[in-house]
Design brief:
Blueprint: H1 3-17, H2 21-34, H3 39-51, H4 55-68, H5 73-86, H6 89-103, H7 112-131, H8 135-148, H9 153-165, H10 169-182, H11 187-199, H12 203-216, H13 221-233
Length: 234
């Protein structure tokens, strides 16, 4: 690499790391004209494009980075997030699956940081599917997240909500009880467990769950609201 381009790369990278993206971008683009197959530069330009709201351009940069280095985990995560925001859920899921397989053949062997990142993005995808009224797809994503890291009570709670939307009350109850065991101070699991009881017609269990939740978490407004409604109905 010629010395002037080494300086371009060094200065552009330093500005990027400092968060000075508008200053880093022209330097990195100039460098890329001379050396179009530098995966880290492609990834950095993808991040800048993403932050600027140019999602199609960002996705193109991340795809190019992965074509140079298919094992580039950060570029895979960035591409999946970008595809998710563009509504291209199938591509986002494909990127995650491929990256996970390349990184490690089994979730148990995966680095905890990487598995946590993948789990979080499966969780995001699951939430997006729920927002679009697609509980079956959401359930798949939440379960993928839990296979990577089963300790997330918030993921189990969202999984339970998706299961309950399909009338799978017993499965929802089991997930919520596990969520409470894993994280006793996680109030939303208690709120949703009470709601699951209520939707199953077990009003007394719902009442007890919400009363217990309020005693444990006095600021849990959802539980107070549901309890008031239940009492008015009674």
């Amino acid at each position: 690499m010629d010395s002037p381009f080494k300086e371009l790369h060094k200065e552009g990278t330093a500005l990027f790391d400092e968060g000075k993206y508008s200053e880093a971008e022209p330097l990195l683009r100039e460098f890329l004209l001379a050396y179009p197959n530098y995966a880290d530069v492609l990834n950095k330009l993808g991040v800048i494009s993403h932050l600027s709201g140019h999602l199609n351009e960002a996705a193109d940069f991340f795809e190019r980075a992965l074509s140079v280095n298919p094992r580039y985990t950060e570029a895979s995560l960035n591409l999946a997030i970008t595809c998710n925001e563009m509504g291209n859920f199938s591509r986002a899921q494909e990127v995650f699956a491929k990256a996970a397989q390349i990184a490690h053949p089994t979730p148990e062997a995966m680095d905890p940081f990487v598995s946590g990142k993948f789990a979080n993005e499966h969780y995001r995808l699951g939430n997006a599917y729920m927002d679009f009224g697609m509980p079956d797809e959401a359930i798949q994503e939440y379960r993928k997240a839990l296979r990577l890291n089963g300790s997330f009570s918030d993921v189990r709670t969202r999984l339970a909500i998706a299961l309950r939307s399909k009338g799978l009350y017993e499965e929802a109850e089991a997930e919520l009880k596990t969520a409470k065991e894993l994280k006793p101070n996680y109030g939303p699991a208690s709120v949703q467990l009470g709601l699951t009881y209520y939707m199953r017609g077990e009003n007394e269990l719902a009442r007890k769950e919400w009363e217990d939740a309020i005693r444990a978490f006095p600021d849990l407004q959802d539980a107070r609201t549901y309890l008031r409604l239940l009492r008015k109905k009674g």
